[in-house]
Please model this.
Amino acid sequence: MDMRIGQGYDIHRLEPGRPLMLGGLDIPSDAGCAGHSDGDALLHAVTDALLGAVAAGDIGELFPDTDRGNYDRPSRDFLQAAARRVRDAGYVVANIDATVTTERPRLSAHKIDMAREIARICRIEPGRVSVKAKTNEGLDAVGTGDALVATAAALVTRNRA
Ligand code: MG
Model:
């Protein structure tokens, strides 16, 4: 079977008073991710995982922060474009597995909704997406609440349809 794997990583600074967009959802929080788009680190990591799986570059190359058109752009646009790249390359997404690491807010109540939203954006079955959440045990910038990290892995297989 023709399979390919991709991985993605993203880190954003957490700033008090900003809305927290994660997995395409507005998550209740007293701090949100800074960034030139809506700062959705989870969608950015998943986007890079999909692009990596089909060797189609990375999110910064496709949507440069030097392009003012990308300012305040919803990150779902980036993920939609990456999923399209996968389909155009002749592959389908077998599964996506992602982890968000942040001290606050606690994300356990939102994991399923975020996974479902990622599946919807990628136009795949909800059961093919997993979102996990953890803290950094008080260590490093994530541990002090100054940053949020997201990682993702994606497996794609050749579309036989
Ligand atoms: Mg980012």
